[in-house]
Design brief:
The protein is an alpha/beta fold. The chain has helices spanning about 15-20, 45-55, 85-95, 120-150, 155-170, 185-190, 205-210, 215-230, 240-245, 250-260, 265-275, 300-310, 310-315, 325-330, 335-340; strands at about 1-5, 40-45, 60, 65-70, 95-105, 200-205, 230-235, 280-285, 290-295, 315-325, 345, 355-360.
Length: about 375
């Protein structure tokens, strides 16, 4: 999973990136501090995998990972090449989803590119540029398809779909809100539309608001906008996240507990990212390795096996599965086996989050 961190200049993008990746990206109080995208790969915290590691004492421990990309700040006119527009838009295109950092704090020390704090205006500035880029891409696709359709009548349905989508975007709607039938899904997914990507709005609040446990009116505006947009919201304080990034797990946990916070900003972004993209993890374990594997919800056992190796899918026989919570409760695989709780599942089994799995195959 690759998540692109976007937003206007000086909203806290690079500060948040530093916090969640410890990559040390440059952060400063002026536009275009980030020019080339900084990339950081972070492991997905998973207490279930930690338990399996204690149980198996494996030679190798491999958690799931997420790639975060800190993308240059966007300005009005990016879709026409203003600022670092073209580079910015292409970098977003490579990501699975967008973390849109929105400034939700006042400060006389940190310059806002538009001179004042207005979360909805800032969101719409970025979204408008993505939409303009999409309309331009779609216009070129329509022009090409129109020419081809004159000699190929089978393209009439495709052209009708493209024109309908174009009307929808020109009305100011994001592509992710466009209703697509099952037969149209492949065509829709083939068009690299930026406004079709899932979005998590990261409402960046001040340290004072975090300490006070306050969600200010700016955050309320972001939540209201996201609800209409069908997007996720995570409230974070990028500055605090950066400060505690160097803490060990025990220190970080103690700090968050003192604030009455259950999860760090990174954990909340990961949870929301998995939910937004419809992802789950199944687990494998043994003396050689314990590992978490990320798959889409609805993935069947043979295709999950294929994540490990193509031979596993090609020669799939069955999957031996026990839910993690069952294994943890009984304490051992042997105990699960004695109680008949290790299930044998075939090709039609749909994988569940936390399935501890052994695949049987023959090639």
């Amino acid at each position: 999973m690759k998540l692109g961190i976007v937003g206007l200049p000086n909203v806290g993008k690079s500060t948040l990136f530093n916090a969640i990746s410890n990559a040390g990206a440059q952060a400063a109080n002026y536009p275009f501090c980030t020019i080339e995208p900084n990339i950081g790969t972070v492991t997905v915290p998973d207490s279930r995998l930690d338990w399996l590691a204690d149980y198996y004492s494996p030679k190798k421990y491999t958690p799931a990972t997420i790639e975060f990309v800190d993308i240059a700040g966007l300005v009005r006119g990016a879709s026409k090449g203003e600022g670092l527009g073209n580079k910015f838009l292409e970098n977003i295109r490579q990501c699975d989803a967008i973390i849109h950092v929105v400034r939700c704090f006042d400060s006389t020390e940190i310059i806002h590119v538009d001179g004042s704090v207005d979360p909805v205006r800032d969101i719409e500035t970025v979204n408008y540029e993505l939409l303009l880029s999409d309309i331009e891409i779609l216009s070129r696709r329509i022009e090409k398809t129109s020419k081809a359709a004159k000699g190929d009548k089978t393209l009439a349905a495709e052209l009708e779909f493209l024109n309908r989508l174009n009307d929808f975007l020109n009305a100011g709607n994001n592509a992710r809100a466009f209703e697509v039938s099952e037969s149209e899904a492949e065509l829709f997914n083939d068009i690299p539309l930026l406004s079709a990507k899932p979005v998590i709005y990261a409402a960046n609040i001040s340290e004072d608001d975090l300490m006070d446990g306050v969600e200010n009116s700016y955050v309320d505006q972001v939540r209201e906008y996201a609800a209409k947009d069908g997007s996720g919201v995570v409230v974070i304080c990028a500055k605090t996240e950066e400060e505690i990034a160097g803490y060990d797990l025990a220190e970080k946990k103690a700090f968050l507990e003192d604030l009455g916070i259950e999860y760090s900003g990174l954990e909340k972004l990961i949870q929301e990212g998995y939910s937004l993209l419809g992802l789950i993890s199944f687990l494998t374990g043994g003396a050689d390795e314990v590992r978490a594997w990320t798959i889409k919800k609805g993935t069947k056992a043979p295709q999950a096996a294929g994540k490990i190796h193509s031979d596993f899918e090609r020669g799939f026989i069955r999957a031996e599965i026990v839910p993690f919570e069952t294994l943890k409760e009984l304490g051992s695989m042997q105990a699960c086996k004695e109680k008949g709780l290790i299930r044998s599942e075939g090709k039609d089994y749909v994988m569940k989050d936390g399935d501890v799995t052994l695949f049987r195959f023959n090639v």
